[in-house]
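Continuing the series of single-chain predictions for the mutant panel. This is the parent chain; the variants come on the following pages.
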Amino acid sequence: MINQEKARATEVMRSGHMGCPGCGHAIGMRLVLQALGNRAVVVVVPSCVAVVSGPYPNACFNVPMFHSAFEIAAPTAAGISAALSLQGKSDIPVLAFAGDGGTFDIGLQSLSGAADRNEDFIYVCMDNEAYMNTGIQVSSATPQYAWTGTSPRGNTRRKKQIMEIMAAHRIPYAATACIGFPEDLMRKIRRAKEIKGTRFLHLLSPCPTGWKMAENMAPMSAAVAVETNIFPLYEIVEGTEYTINHIPKGLPVEKYLSLQGRYKHLGQEEIRTIQAETDRAWKELQRRAKGG
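Parent structure:
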């Protein structure tokens, strides 16, 4: 359990966020900020992360916050970090929050450029697997066969492998995390805080509205994503050193899919395809973690 006194002492996110009930982003952002501490600067972009943090002139963060354009979370954070460094304030971390649309799609070019230069900031991709803020449209983070408003019969494409893209930049640190494993998430933020250069976290934060499930289901669905190998928890150092942080129970993927209405149209053939791809990806991750 997280120590409650410590949590209160490091609370950075005030009550009154403007996300939907049970929003996975709100839970994840609160945990990230608790681990980061109240001496930091945060960048947000137009998306669910901006709604949660508070549309102008409102804000629920107790740290300085900068709203950037959708596609430039990474270079904005890099610029603020460089400005702080010029002022001799090297002990103030700069963190960028962006969604999967602003990371996998619209912001990928600028994120890649900043990572290639190894700019000094922490980037957290809050992944709810679609453009939830503008109507639940498909993104390149949307899993295969998942329903969205623009893929009503199920997404025909597979989810982009963002961790492999970031690993290819050989950045100092990259990790997956989810709101279903809060201690693991906060440990990774604290570790990232102690490293210089580009640090990237891919954080699964389920959206009850877009995933068509009850508002209290976000943490559980994230935890089941890990236990079914849909979303393994691991770290990558310098693009090559893989470490698996949790050995999952290996539950069948149907346990995860059945929690969400966005998969209710699936037949057994689609479920078998998802299971086979999940098994393949898990074996590949194990191979990488063993240095194979």
